[in-house]
Design a protein that fits this description.
This protein has a 5-stranded mixed β-barrel. By secondary structure, it is α+β, with helices and mostly antiparallel strands. The protein starts with a strand and ends with a helix. It has 3 domains: 60 residues, Nucleic acid-binding proteins (OB fold (Dihydrolipoamide Acetyltransferase, E2P), Beta Barrel); 70 residues, 5' to 3' exonuclease, C-terminal subdomain (DNA polymerase, domain 1, Orthogonal Bundle), CATH 1.10.150; 45 residues, Helicase, Ruva Protein, domain 3.
Amino acid sequence: MFEFIRGRVHKVLPGLAILEAGGVGYRLQVPLTTSARLTGPEATLLVHHTLLPEQGEERLYGFATEREREFFRSLLEVKGIGPTTALQVMCAADLEELINLIVGSDVSGLKKFKGIGPKTAERLVTELRDKLAPLATGPARNTTAASARLPAGQPAADAVLALVALGYPQAKSEQAVAKAAGALGAGAKTEELVRRALQMV
């Protein structure tokens, strides 16, 4: 139904973008890599449109690159993965890490993502490994994290907001961001905090 939306950047939060085009504000859920790129007054986002008949709701997912959108759509081809889980996974790790986990048949690494159980992780490897093999760049990075207190500052606060927007409880979001901050150290950006925190909730 939608291919892309080009318009004025009205609002950007980690994982969320609102673009104004033709006098209409479009709310798009986006991976962190996309929201991090929306720094100018205008933007063009490639769109994936979904209809949830049970809730009578339509949702738009936006992507800065065709590579991101194609990976998102590849995830949707796997039984047991819907748009919400696919976006959570893409927010929890960068695209290269995800591709490397799948191509490397790292079922244990894939199971750490919310909504990905053992069977779904195995299906990801079985169904997408060969398809994504040409895109792999190397081994996935270590994502082990240590505990820490939630640090003061806007990046941590925005990271908590991003997790809450994705459906996680406030307290759990704060705990996960605190652990992420402890692992990444001072100066970590919001995008980095959210990615690491999503691997801990």
